[in-house]
Task: inverse folding
């Protein structure tokens, strides 16, 4: 049976008062005893008065230490030992002084609630980790399967392309089938491009890092992109940064990323427009910005543009941006994108100046 509310409120006394109330009681009783001794005829000698004062002081100290030991020291020791158990991974540890109805008890309740929350969070993280590991194994299996299928399809496809070329040469010049042959040849090339991207995605080569001028890497991609707009009213502008220090990267892979995003920007422009590339220098990293004046990307499609096989173009493979994102992540960088329909899109590729050093492997002693 629980005590009534007014009694529960009365027992919620701060631990400082619990310490000083017994001491105050002993102090009052001791002073009363000394006053009685001074007014008593039997204890008028000074030595007995001094002995009584010393005895009272010793008793007062003993009571104070005992109260502090019970109310403060024992909970602190229990809290320290419980924290040590939690630090070692035992999230079932709880403090017993949480049952007290004072400040120390409330501290214990809050500590137990915190450990219980940590235990719940750890269980959730373990479940998520199991799910992610299963998903990673599933994707790895699919990647191996896709790579094997791509290899098996490429050989027959090369044969089909050769036969189509032979048929095209043997057809009469005025044959109506020549247009069909051209369409078939373009579709074969499209399938080959998809297979090449699929192989690159499933089995990417590791980057070959070395300090290189990032301006040169971007400029080479710009030169290749300008070849695609020689007959179009589209400008590809480049703003280098001469003061940029060397960036530790794989020039061929980063050039592939920049060229892919630049060509996407060119294809997003239906008429006159421009794609502007710039290299910026920040405190922690170098940034490549690629801005186009194309049609933009809708807010619904924007979160999915880096997912494999997602594309907003009918002729796209949907693997280019996914490959680019993987390459940048392998460099320790990131890609950010902002876009507005009818106004264009801006990609920001951030790369660290020096890639982080891998942690040293623990040495194994041979016996």
Result:
């Amino acid at each position: 049976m629980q005590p009534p509310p007014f009694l529960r409120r009365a027992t919620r006394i701060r631990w400082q008062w619990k310490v000083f109330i017994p001491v105050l009681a002993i102090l009052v009783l001791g002073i009363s005893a000394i006053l009685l001794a001074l007014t008593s005829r039997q204890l008028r000698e000074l030595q007995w008065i001094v002995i009584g004062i010393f005895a009272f002081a010793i008793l007062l100290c003993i009571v104070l230490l005992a109260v502090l030991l019970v109310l403060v020291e024992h909970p602190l020791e229990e809290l320290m030992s419980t924290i040590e158990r939690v630090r070692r991974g035992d999230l079932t540890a709880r403090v017993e002084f949480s049952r007290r109805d004072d400040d120390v008890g409330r501290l214990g309740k809050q500590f137990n609630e915190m450990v219980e929350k940590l235990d719940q969070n750890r269980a959730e993280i373990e479940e998520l980790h199991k799910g992610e590991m299963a998903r990673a194994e599933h994707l790895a299996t699919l990647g191996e399967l896709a790579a094997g299928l791509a290899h098996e399809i490429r050989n027959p496809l090369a044969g089909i392309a050769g036969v189509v070329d032979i048929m095209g040469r043997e057809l009469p010049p005025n044959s109506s089938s020549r247009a069909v042959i051209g369409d078939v040849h373009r579709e074969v090339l499209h399938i080959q491009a998809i297979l090449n991207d699929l192989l690159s995605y499933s089995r990417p080569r590791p980057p070959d890092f070395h300090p290189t001028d990032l301006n040169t890497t971007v400029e080479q991609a710009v030169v290749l992109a300008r070849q695609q707009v020689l007959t179009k009213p589209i400008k590809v502008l480049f703003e280098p940064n001469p003061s940029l220090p060397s960036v530790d990267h794989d020039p061929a892979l980063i050039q592939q990323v920049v060229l892919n995003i630049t060509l996407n920007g060119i294809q997003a422009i239906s008429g006159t427009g421009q794609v502007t590339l710039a290299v910026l220098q920040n405190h922690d990293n170098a940034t490549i910005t690629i801005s186009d004046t194309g049609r933009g990307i809708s807010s619904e499609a924007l979160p999915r543009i880096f997912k494999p096989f997602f594309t907003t173009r009918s002729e796209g493979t949907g693997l280019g941006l996914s490959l680019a994102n993987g390459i940048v992540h392998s460099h320790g960088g990131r890609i950010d994108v902002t876009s507005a329909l009818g106004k264009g899109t801006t990609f920001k590729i951030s790369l660290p100046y020096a890639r982080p050093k891998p942690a040293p492997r623990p040495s194994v002693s041979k016996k």
